[in-house]
């Protein structure tokens, strides 16, 4: 029995070593396939299911993937297209991203919805911050990565964060949130690891408050919502009352 266990342990160890050795290759191959199939030469993620349009989440996710793949050239192209076509700076005065871009009824292409998606803006800011840490230089026509990350993070706080009377801070789904309670939140947009990265980078201290408030909030949700007992998972949408009570939204499952 001892011999069999030792043999099994050795086999599993060898498998783990093989998997670990192959992982970089698998990740690079996966990224290369995604880049070649979905990212245009200009740096736009083309979504067939959206009539060849794109959304800010797709651009931000691709930036993170390019970063982790070490693909600085594609990262730069994605940044340039994103800023040129999705930035709200010229029209709305902030560094956040319009969430939807595609073909308009008149046949032209451009922004279809200037509202923001806070999960995309978080990923965008984090990707820029991490690129600056790698020492990557922004391409001509794009601001310094660290400076732009700071601006985006600042505008997320200004436009897409809500505060309860108790002082708790939570991330709203976008700039379109209701200005007073009850607030509609989507917990799947939360990204505490990004909040912590922003604190470590010396950004606004309110990111630390967001980080501290996120985990107790998520824990409450996993335990249940009103009379419905939880099973360890958080609901997609939840309404937060002024007193902190959590209720289902009447129009969102």
Write structural notes for this entry.
It is a single chain. By secondary structure, the protein is mostly helical. Helices cover 51% and strands 11% of the residues. It has 8 helices and 10 strands. It has helices at residues 2-38, 56-69, 72-86, 89-92, 118-133, 145-160, 192-200, 206-223, and strands spanning 54-55, 100-103, 109-113, 161-163, 169-171, 183-185, 224-225, 228-229, 238-240, 246-247. The protein has a 3-stranded antiparallel β-sheet. It has a 3-stranded antiparallel β-sheet with strand order 6-9-10, with no helix packed on it. A hairpin with a 2-residue loop joins strand 7 (224-225) and strand 8. Helix 5 (118-133) packs antiparallel against helix 6 (145-160) and helix 7 packs antiparallel against helix 8. The longest helix is centred in the N-terminal third of the chain and has 37 residues, at 2-38. The radius of gyration is 21 Å and the shape is globular. The termini are far apart.
């Amino acid at each position: 029995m001892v011999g069999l266990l030792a043999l099994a342990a050795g086999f599993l160890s060898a498998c783990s070593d093989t998997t670990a050795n192959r992982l970089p290759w698998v990740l690079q191959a996966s990224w290369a396939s995604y880049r070649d199939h979905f990212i245009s030469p200009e740096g736009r993620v083309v979504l067939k299911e959206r009539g060849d349009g794109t959304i800010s989440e797709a651009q931000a996710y691709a930036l993170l993937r390019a970063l982790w793949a070490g693909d600085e050239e594609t990262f730069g192209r994605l940044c340039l297209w994103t800023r040129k076509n999705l930035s709200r700076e010229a029209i709305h005065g902030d560094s956040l991203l319009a969430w939807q871009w595609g073909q308009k009824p008149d046949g032209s292409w451009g922004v279809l919805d200037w509202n923001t998606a806070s999960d995309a803006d978080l990923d965008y800011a984090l990707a820029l911050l991490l690129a600056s840490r790698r020492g990557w230089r922004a391409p001509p026509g794009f601001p310094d990565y660290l400076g732009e990350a700071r601006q985006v993070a600042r505008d997320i706080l200004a436009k897409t964060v809500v505060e309860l009377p108790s002082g708790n801070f939570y991330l709203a789904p976008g700039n379109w949130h209701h200005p007073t309670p009850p607030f509609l939140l989507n917990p799947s947009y939360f990204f505490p690891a990004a909040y912590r990265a922003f604190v470590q980078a010396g950004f606004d201290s309110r990111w630390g408050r967001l980080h501290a408030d996120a985990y107790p909030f998520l824990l409450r949700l996993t335990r249940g919502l009103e009379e419905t007992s939880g099973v360890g998972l958080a609901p997609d949408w939840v309404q937060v009352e002024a007193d902190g009570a959590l209720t289902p939204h009447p129009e969102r499952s």
